[in-house]
Design goal:
It is built from eleven helices and eight strands. The protein is of the alpha/beta class. The protein has a single domain, classed as Rossmann fold. Strands 3-4-2-5-1-6-7-8 form an eight-stranded mixed sheet, sandwiched between helices. The two termini are 15 Å apart.
Length: 256
């Protein structure tokens, strides 16, 4: 399975959501979280493993360069395991650092689609002109991360309309919100999307839980007893269950 995680203008949170989703993947399988934001990412800086820092390589750019020899185990072989159940491939830091990927995005998308592990790919703030469009178009599902404020919802609504029109199989709005506000915020988002007849699934939410985010970034396992009970990880599990109920298949791939 290839799950693309993106946001629209004014809706940060795609990287955190992708981390939580990859970390909450079913315990019988494992997912690789791939940071493929064309504007550059900060995963390599944010994650703090016990040994001090993630290695400078591999990154999404070195993975893309290796796609000249496509094989099912390619993506998994480039992933760094940072805790039990969480393996990542960081992105490049800036848009300029990613220039070497020009012409390789289609091959990267093919590698992710054929991978023998599930891949959760963070493509950042997205529009149809993004170099990461190949990843989104090949995805089995797209998690569209938004906040519940009016500007964020309207921008996300228009992006959802584009994604649905492009033929993405499942578009799942994901609202970043506090647990206590989730029911109200989701209802507000669904009303705005429905009033514009945007053909997407009913929204789900990813819990605003800064303490749990810091724990994941410190490379504590999302499958450990403490983190597995947090609002963040439990809400991520609900999203995965929701995607599965829509017919998106979570594979029984080789765990990383």
């Amino acid at each position: 399975m290839l799950l693309a995680v993106c946001s629209s203008k004014g809706s940060p949170g795609a990287t955190t959501a992708a981390l939580a989703l990859a970390g909450a993947w079913p315990t019988t399988t494992s997912a690789v979280m791939l940071e493929a934001d064309p504007a550059g990412g900060d995963l390599g800086i944010r994650l703090k493993p016990a040994e001090g820092a993630l290695p400078a390589s591999p990154t999404v750019a070195t993975l893309a360069a290796a796609t000249r020899e496509l094989r099912p185990d390619l993506v998994g072989s480039f992933a760094a395991t940072v805790s039990e159940g969480l393996a990542v491939i960081p992105g490049f830091l800036t848009r300029e650092h990613g220039r070497g990927m020009a012409g390789l995005w289609d091959a990267l998308a093919t590698a992710c689609a054929m991978a023998d592990v599930d891949v959760v790919v963070d493509v950042g703030r997205y529009d149809s002109a993004s170099p990461a469009a190949a990843l989104v178009s090949r995805a089995d599902a797209v998690a569209l991360v938004l906040r519940a404020d009016p500007a964020s919802v309207v921008h996300a609504r228009e992006l959802a309309r584009q994604l649905a029109a492009s033929g993405s199989s499942v578009v799942q709005p994901v609202v970043v919100t506090r647990e206590r506000d989730a029911t109200t915020d989701r209802a507000d988002v669904d009303l705005i999307f429905a009033s514009a007849a945007v053909p997407v699934r009913s929204s789900l939410h990813i819990a605003w839980d800064p303490t749990a985010v810091r724990s994941i970034e410190s490379c504590q396992s999302p499958r450990g007893r403490t983190l597995a009970r947090t609002k963040l990880v439990r809400s991520a599990q609900t999203i995965i269950d929701g995607l599965a109920s829509s017919g998106v298949e979570v594979s029984e791939g080789v765990a990383t």
